[in-house]
Amino acid sequence: MQFDNLSAHTLRDPHGYSGKWHFYPEDVLPMWVADMDFPISPAIREAIVERLQERIGYPQMSGDKQLLNRIIQHQQQHGLTGLAPENLLLTTSVVPAIYASVLALSSPGDEAITQVPVYHPFLFALHEHHRVARYNPLLRTASGWEIDFEQLESLVTPRTRLLMLCNPQNPTGRVFRRDELERLAEFALRHRLWVMSDELWADLIYEGKHIPIASLGPEIAQRTVTLSGPCKTYNTAGLGGGVAISHNRQILAALAQVSKGIGGHPNVLSMAAWRAALEHAQDWLQEVRAYLKVNRDFITSFIHQHLPQVGYLPPEGTYLAWLDFSRAPFAQDAHKVMLEQAKVGLNDGKIFGPQYQGWLRLNFATSRNLVQEALERMARVVQTVD
Ligand SMILES: Cc1ncc(COP(=O)(O)O)c(C=O)c1O
Prior knowledge:
With 386 residues, the protein is an alpha/beta fold.
């Protein structure tokens, strides 16, 4: 299996290109920022090389037409239909589209609701721009993470403007079911909220089916901006590239307006890579997904056997394991202890929401032997400290 042959030695490139591999000291196994240690699909590499044979002057600002059509086709496969190129706004990557959505769809002092734990730039965008984050913590139930709809209702005030959804969810790996999305859509419509739905992880799913919230009906489509991009699925984060999609062109015009002059323009290599990914990297993706699923299952059985004191629910999607060390004696310093004693670099849970001190996020998109090495290092520390 090609993804088995990765070693820490080769991944820590001597040029210092990789943020993931050069952030922590050399004796630390980095299992944090969300990119994969796997090489990109040969189809993407070839498309980039081929694109470099052409001039790389300014592209059309609205983006490469063939790419736009491919994105439309791809969204259609997920059930989001009725899109034309005018319903797509290319962005330099997805985070700028998160910020633009907050700026365009709310005003300072307004409130935005989001399920937590959540991808931290959601919260950063709100705090940095003087919006108020209202947290709807996911509930840990016997069957998995569930949305607390009762608490959700209680969060609404006259200042609530925006629902920020992450689906599939980073960091829990939840893939929301149709019934949950229908309730969220009904909630948003009843309270006249805008919806930003970050669906960047939509193609990395092991169980369930990705359903774009905007696909649930014309009314919710009119109030939603869906964000997507190539970087999680095809491991092209360093190239950038993202898209804001809405049936409501006024939403896209508002995003474009707040990004004016700072949004940059689409990157020609990223567009070439994205198109090649959608056209020719599907076998590669299938192989990656299968490999990740086995990694996920390996983690599940390892934790069950060797770290039963750690709370963990296997993710239905993403390559992230969300680990609860909050009852460990070192819960207050879980990140530091894992870094300094286990020599494993993880994401500190507290950035995903204020109540997640003692939680850690582990990225398992690497070779199985490195996943195993990281878990063994962590287990040794837990067993020593317990
Ligand atoms: C939900 C989500 N949105 C956005 C991003 C970042 O996207 P980009 O690198 O395209 O800005 C990530 C990265 O992990 C993510 O998990």
